[in-house]
Amino acid sequence: MRRQEEAQLKAGLLQINQLSQQLEAENQYLQEEVSHHFENIISKSKAYAEVLHQVEQVAPTDSTVLIEGESGTGKELIAHAIHRLSQRSQRALVKVNCAVLPESLIESELFGHEKGAFTGADKRRQGRFELADGGTIFLDEIGELPLDIQAKLLRVLQEGEFERVGGNVTLTVNVRIIAATNRKLKQMVGQKKFREDLYYRLNVFPIENIPLRERTEDIPLLTQHFLKKFSLKTGKQIDKILPKDMKRLQQYRFPGNVRELENIIERAVILTPGEILDLSYWKPDNESSRERSTEIKTMEEMQQELIIRTLEKTHWRVSGPDGAAAILDMHPQTLYSRMRKLGIKRSDR
């Protein structure tokens, strides 16, 4: 009995080591493949490759880019990649998070202010657009900008001109704008919360950054990346993850996307005492699990499956003693009615 348990343990450890080596090799290969273009972007997903292809297409131009996508998908990484591949790569990439700036200071942050423009303005200050002159400005969470600031941003996009707060001298800048949002700007336009003219000025080249649940093949690579990152940061030697835990991660839908995965791995590294990552603390909502969503079927789905299987068995004959209706113990007209309701046609075979 003891020998059998030891053999099972050895087999399990061998499986862990093989998985770890495979992930390491894939990660190294992919890093070599994309690092010269897409530093810090880790992916082997075909769907995400389309996003990166769009980045390569638009980067050499000076066109305005609007990056849309859920929170935590890595929109800032896309903005960095566009700047790095652009003709402005030797100049600054100036980042502005529009969601964290107080409304009273947004205009000053973006366009600067003159001495005495308001209480506390004891000297002239350059704004982010001046700092980005000749380079790129990244306006993150642009959907949070107040409408009055949107009007001034529109002028910069159209004319490349603005005035500092409290000033009357018109300044001219040459700046490429990359904007990002996790909100549906087109809906906001309809709700009069975002200027329509600004939306169309920003939406020259839209890029939809896909959620992690649509690139699940990247979860093992990202997990290994974060495992190495936080092991190094904490001084630990954790380099393995159990196959069952990797399966759990790949079945989870990650509403918080890559950022949520990163947080899960960071906490696990902190809690892990040994060399194998301990994910026992992590108990996600089962309703968010792909495994649950695919295993549990609605009553209509089960009925549809049973009827189609029975019809296939009878070669799609409904009536008669050997027909599907007789097997299912229902009147033929009832079965026809149920088939119409469930959208069952012979092409469903």
TrEMBL record:
<dbReference type="InterPro" id="IPR009057">
    <property type="entry name" value="Homeodomain-like_sf"/>
</dbReference>
<dbReference type="InterPro" id="IPR002197">
    <property type="entry name" value="HTH_Fis"/>
</dbReference>
<keyword id="KW-0547">Nucleotide-binding</keyword>
<dbReference type="InterPro" id="IPR025943">
    <property type="entry name" value="Sigma_54_int_dom_ATP-bd_2"/>
</dbReference>
<dbReference type="InterPro" id="IPR003593">
    <property type="entry name" value="AAA+_ATPase"/>
</dbReference>
<dbReference type="GO" id="GO:0043565">
    <property type="term" value="F:sequence-specific DNA binding"/>
</dbReference>
<keyword id="KW-0804">Transcription</keyword>
<feature type="coiled-coil region">
    <location>
        <begin position="2"/>
        <end position="33"/>
    </location>
</feature>
<dbReference type="GO" id="GO:0006355">
    <property type="term" value="P:regulation of DNA-templated transcription"/>
</dbReference>
<dbReference type="Pfam" id="PF25601">
    <property type="entry name" value="AAA_lid_14"/>
</dbReference>
<keyword id="KW-0067">ATP-binding</keyword>
<keyword id="KW-0010">Activator</keyword>
<protein>
    <submittedName>
        <fullName>DNA-binding response regulator</fullName>
    </submittedName>
</protein>
<keyword id="KW-0238">DNA-binding</keyword>
<dbReference type="InterPro" id="IPR025662">
    <property type="entry name" value="Sigma_54_int_dom_ATP-bd_1"/>
</dbReference>
<dbReference type="InterPro" id="IPR025944">
    <property type="entry name" value="Sigma_54_int_dom_CS"/>
</dbReference>
<keyword id="KW-0175">Coiled coil</keyword>
<dbReference type="Pfam" id="PF02954">
    <property type="entry name" value="HTH_8"/>
</dbReference>
<dbReference type="Pfam" id="PF00158">
    <property type="entry name" value="Sigma54_activat"/>
</dbReference>
<dbReference type="InterPro" id="IPR058031">
    <property type="entry name" value="AAA_lid_NorR"/>
</dbReference>
<dbReference type="InterPro" id="IPR027417">
    <property type="entry name" value="P-loop_NTPase"/>
</dbReference>
<dbReference type="InterPro" id="IPR002078">
    <property type="entry name" value="Sigma_54_int"/>
</dbReference>
<feature type="domain" description="Sigma-54 factor interaction">
    <location>
        <begin position="41"/>
        <end position="270"/>
    </location>
</feature>
<keyword id="KW-0805">Transcription regulation</keyword>
<dbReference type="GO" id="GO:0005524">
    <property type="term" value="F:ATP binding"/>
</dbReference>
